[in-house]
């Protein structure tokens, strides 16, 4: 088994991977946060982060045909430019001091934002390039801990946006974010042959989970989708807090 995982741990991670892939197929985000939060309960999640990011990229291949007409490319570009500024610094800090303190701060902010969104509050003004670039910087700072998608999801959930556009834009943005992050993790020594083996083993579960989640999305109403997105953010923020407190 890669990463010296025992059979029981590997089986538990496989179930978590399938569930996280379903959520990604439905909502467009949440895969990394769910899987890493669960992995932290049964093993050291740090070596698994490159596998998770590679899985995110692979799942986009599965979903590309169904989302390409809905992507807001301007948002994606502005946010990725911001993320690229922050990522080298955030990865360096994460590799040197760990992720628990950062997870507490990030998860607490996301939880507060989720509660505000649950009240029905939305942004009424159109957010420009600087605003999206700033969110990208925050996202890049968070992605070394594997949760760079959560600030972006919270930010976009507060704006009037069609569910299909939200989902497609999140998928493409996270793919770009992970493509920027992976070489930095490789330079930091976190990418190995075990990373490739783990990705190969995950492949069938990723395909099944994304397919099932995509089918569920097609039958969801816009209000149901937004409610799910906000509740997912709340759940992930709580998992992040529990995971970080456990690690301290």
Automatic annotation (TrEMBL):
Family: Belongs to the 4-toluene sulfonate uptake permease (TSUP) (TC 2.A.102) family.
Keyword line: Cell membrane, Membrane, Transmembrane, Transmembrane helix, Transport
Organism encoding this protein: Yoonia rosea
Membrane topology: Multi-pass membrane protein
Classification of source organism: Bacteria, Pseudomonadati, Pseudomonadota, Alphaproteobacteria, Rhodobacterales
Compartments where found: Cell membrane
Listed transmembrane segments: 12-40, 76-98, 104-123, 135-158, 170-188, 195-213, 225-245
InterPro entries xrefs: TM_pro_TauE-like, TSUP
GO cellular component, one term: plasma membrane
The protein, known as: Probable membrane transporter protein
UniProt keyword Transport present: yes
